[in-house]
UniProtKB/TrEMBL annotation, chain A:
Its main location: membrane. Residues 58-252 form the ABC transmembrane type-1 domain. One of its GO terms (cellular component) is plasma membrane. InterPro entries: BP-dep_ABC_trans_perm, MetI-like, MetI-like_sf. Keywords: Cell membrane, Membrane, Sugar transport, Transmembrane, Transmembrane helix, Transport. The chain crosses the membrane at residues 55-77, 89-113, 133-152, 231-253. This is ABC-type sugar transport system, permease component. It is found in: Cell membrane.
TrEMBL record, chain B:
Gene3D superfamilies: MetI-like. SUPFAM superfamilies: MetI-like. Keywords: Cell membrane, Membrane, Sugar transport, Transmembrane, Transmembrane helix, Transport. It comes from Pyrobaculum oguniense (strain DSM 13380 / JCM 10595 / TE7). Its main location: membrane. One of its GO terms (biological process) is transmembrane transport. This is ABC-type sugar transport systems, permease component. It comes from the Archaea. Residues 60-269 form the ABC transmembrane type-1 domain. CDD domains: TM_PBP2 (cd06261). The chain crosses the membrane at residues 12-32, 59-85, 92-112, 145-170, 191-212, 250-276. GO terms for cellular component: plasma membrane.
Length: 263, 281
């Protein structure tokens, strides 16, 4: 059993890491080359992809991700605290949680028309602000989901003590809930950034100007353009787009194991 | 009441989701091309049009096939790997490494898969040539293209299942395992009769999350096959994009959305029910 399980684990780790390793190697190929390993390694792909605007695209992804995370946190923090701690019944709490689980599960493509019409009405098509608002479809239910579970865990004793001392709900929100939910805020921000970073459907539909492309959309265009078989170019772009989310591995690994039932 | 004020931003947002669904359902009963003019009520016309289109029926079948096979394969393999992981040391490092595929953008996986499967100029082509054969053109063959996409999805998302199930396995009390061992449980009987049943809620959660998430496959299909060859990999999402959004036929697009919503509810409703049950207990 022990030997079988270490074989399984080795296999799992290899499959988890090898796609990225292959793409990293491919990014150092020379133009027109396709057999690994690169001989000799070249940074031509990176030079080319910087020319094609990957820097701007990465900044765009970061901007949209941070905006989306800020919106979600600003909405989910007060709501989760109020629903969990300000005298609503458990039945109400579970109802909000169930509604959150439902909205989190809807296929984002199914809400495409509604979002498209809303953004068109507000004149926010082809803008990063509009895209960040559209991403609330993804990020807000997840933010509520994580924060409701965290708010539920805030110590009732501290809450009660502050109430006895005459602190108003708003004061308790700012001085007890916000600091207590620091980790939840961090987790929500990280997961939103990761989600937005990899998202393609909404970004491809709502953004038209090439200077506003997110990294995923730029790579999508490269893949279906004349660069589609320049493995060094599209791999270099992929490597650059993969590094920022991987930097958040610590926060994500912790948050991911808790997001299934929220409890 | 101040508590309602504090609660309102999120509650209003959740309300807007519901409004969005109602709007989509209502629009699906209208003829609405943005370039032509305002929506005009046409009853079930959009649905008649959809269900008389063989490509749409094909898209339904492709979507259900993809979602079911991908989610089941990922769950089965993920559970086995999580069980293996339970008996090893240095789990912290492993958990970090297994998180990576979830963090890497899907487009990177698409690039990887195109590079591997390209039978002329891919990474495997020279290797195959060395051994004197040619790798088949998986993505260009209507019989294998969908399975090639399923393969990529399994490769990227099995680690996610492993992590969720692994977290559930860690909650199994060690005393139970020791007691079962004293009673003679080994190998498969230990796994199937003792440990895995105790982690059944985590396994179910992983399965439902994968079923729900498998509907969001657009980027992989679009950048690998564009729904082809023919319509062999056209999912409902792709149908929605090419027939509804791209042509700005928003009435028809809404009807496709409603069908998509309806099907996904088969996975969503039991999941939400399980969530509510977990919290009420």
């Amino acid at each position: 059993m022990a030997r079988l399980s270490s074989v399984a684990v080795t296999l799992a780790l290899l499959t988890a890491v090898s796609p990225l390793a292959v793409v990293v190697m491919a990014s150092f190929l020379n133009a027109g080359q396709y057999s690994l390993p690169p001989n000799p390694p070249s940074v031509e792909g990176y030079a080319k992809v910087l020319d094609l605007g990957i820097g701007q695209a990465l900044l765009n992804s970061a901007l949209v991700g941070l905006l989306a995370a800020a919106f979600s946190v600003a909405v989910a923090l007060p709501t989760s605290y109020a629903v969990a701690k300000l005298g609503f019944t458990l039945r109400f709490f579970v109802a909000v949680l169930a509604l959150t689980a439902l909205t989190r599960s809807l296929p984002p493509s199914a809400l495409l028309v509604a979002v498209y019409e809303t953004l068109r009405g507000m004149g926010l098509l082809d803008s990063h602000l509009g895209l960040a608002l559209a991403y609330q479809i993804y990020s807000l239910p997840m933010a509520l989901w994580i924060m409701l579970a965290f708010a539920y865990e805030i110590s009732p004793e501290v809450e009660a003590a502050a109430r006895v001392d005459g602190a108003s709900p708003v004061k308790r929100f700012f001085y007890i809930a916000v600091p207590a939910m620091r980790n939840a805020t961090l987790a929500v921000a990280a997961l939103t950034l990761i989600e937005v970073w990899g998202e393609y459907l909404y970004a491809a539909i709502f953004i038209n100007a090439p200077s506003k492309y997110t990294a995923s959309v730029l790579i999508g265009h490269l893949v279906s353009s004349e660069y589609g078989f320049d493995w060094n170019v599209i791999s270099a772009a992929s490597v650059m787009a993969s590094i920022p989310p991987i930097l958040m591995v610590g926060i994500a690994a912790q948050a991911m194991t808790k997001i299934h039932f929220g409890k | 009441m101040i508590r309602w004020v504090l609660a309102s931003p999120g509650l209003i947002a959740l309300g807007l989701f519901i409004v969005g669904i109602i709007y989509t359902v209502a629009l699906s009963l209208h003829y609405y091309k943005v370039a032509v003019g305002p929506p005009k009520f046409v009853g079930w016309d959009n649905y008649f049009q959809l269900f008389s289109d063989p490509t749409f029926s094909k898209a339904l079948a492709v979507t259900v096939t993809f979602v079911a096979t991908a989610a089941l394969l990922e769950t089965a393999i993920g559970v086995a790997l999580a069980y293996g992981l339970m008996w090893t040391r240095r789990r912290g490092v492993y958990v970090g490494l297994l998180t990576i595929p979830y963090l890497v953008p899907s487009v990177t996986y698409v690039v990887f898969w195109r590079y591997m499967l390209d039978y002329r100029r891919g990474a495997l082509a020279p290797v195959a040539e060395f051994f004197g054969f040619r790798i088949p053109d998986f993505l260009g063959n209507p019989d294998t293209a969908l399975w090639a996409i399923v393969g990529l999805d399994v490769l990227q998302l099995t680690p996610f299942v492993t992590l969720v199930v692994f977290a559930g396995l860690l909650a199994v009390p060690p005393e139970v395992i020791s007691a079962a061992r004293i009673d003679g449980a080994r190998g498969f009987s230990m796994a199937l009769r003792v440990v895995l049943p105790l982690a059944s809620s985590a396994i179910l959660a992983a399965l439902f999350l994968r079923l729900i998430d498998a509907f969001r496959i657009f980027v992989k299909v679009w950048l690998l096959t564009r729904g082809g060859p023919g319509d062999s990999t056209t999912t409902l999402e792709l149908y929605l994009y090419t027939r509804g959004i791209y042509t700005l036929d928003l009435g028809l697009a809404s009807a496709v959305s409603v069908v998509l919503l309806g099907i996904s509810m088969a996975a969503i409703v039991p999941y939400v029910y399980l969530v509510a049950k977990t919290w009420r207990a």
